[in-house]
Design a protein that fits this description.
Distance between the termini: 30 Å
Strand order of the largest sheet: 2-4-5-7-6
Order of helices and strands: HEEEHEHEHEE
Number of strands: 7
Strand content: 15-25%
Shape: globular
Largest sheet: 5 strands, mixed
Number of helices: 4
Length: 197
């Protein structure tokens, strides 16, 4: 697995940490299920033109390192959301103006800065681990501190969190799926739309 990790990082050699880059899914290393390019999200409509994952280079480096550790355990990362244009953040806030779940666009989200990922774990057959709630579940059951969950669910969430924290990410208290790369709140907001091929 280390060879895969080295190869994945090699594709990005020489790119500065703050540059936005499209995540290249080398050898199927990640699963991409970009929910906002579909109607399977709390907005109930697609708001991305296509299923691309853009992040700042430092976020990608840390994500690859975390995924390498998951791969060694027989899992891999499935991504639901990456960089999000600020205009999309404004639409989300209109529907869910609650800062426990959606960042106020006046301040901006770490997603708008290219430093946040929404994700889960899947086994090597692509089957999602049970995390107790779906992605984008707005309720107390999605919080890291929520304890009224089966033991296996708590273990799955703990595994995800432990390894993500080890690779320079911070968790978000009300959403088990949301992680911010360290100090990404210092990066400027962005509003570009990616080109769909």
């Amino acid at each position: 697995m280390n060879a895969l990790n080295t190869q994945a990082l090699k594709m990005y050699e020489g790119i500065h940490d703050t540059v936005f880059v499209r995540l290249k899914n080398n050898e199927g290393q990640f699963l991409l299920d970009m929910k906002y390019a579909t109607a399977e999200n709390f907005l109930k409509t697609p708001v991305y033109d296509c299923s691309e994952c853009y992040l700042r280079m430092k976020t990608i480096r840390n994500l690859i390192e975390a995924n390498n550790e998951f791969l060694q355990l027989g899992y891999r990362i499935k991504l639901f959301d990456c960089y999000r244009p600020l205009d999309i953040q404004k639409k989300m806030w209109q529907i869910m103006p609650n800062a426990d779940y959606v960042a106020d666009p006046q301040k901006g989200s770490i997603h708008n800065r290219g430093g946040a990922v929404d994700l889960t774990l899947v086994d090597l057959n692509g089957v999602e681990l049970d995390m107790g709630t779906p992605f984008d579940h707005f309720g107390p059951e999605a919080a890291h501190a929520y304890k009224k969950l089966p033991k296996k669910v708590r273990a799955n969430r703990a595994l995800l969190k432990e390894i993500m924290l080890r690779h320079n990410f911070k968790s978000f208290k009300s959403e088990w799926w949301h992680y911010n790369v360290f100090e990404s709140n210092k990066d400027p907001l962005a509003n570009f739309k990616w080109i769909c091929n």
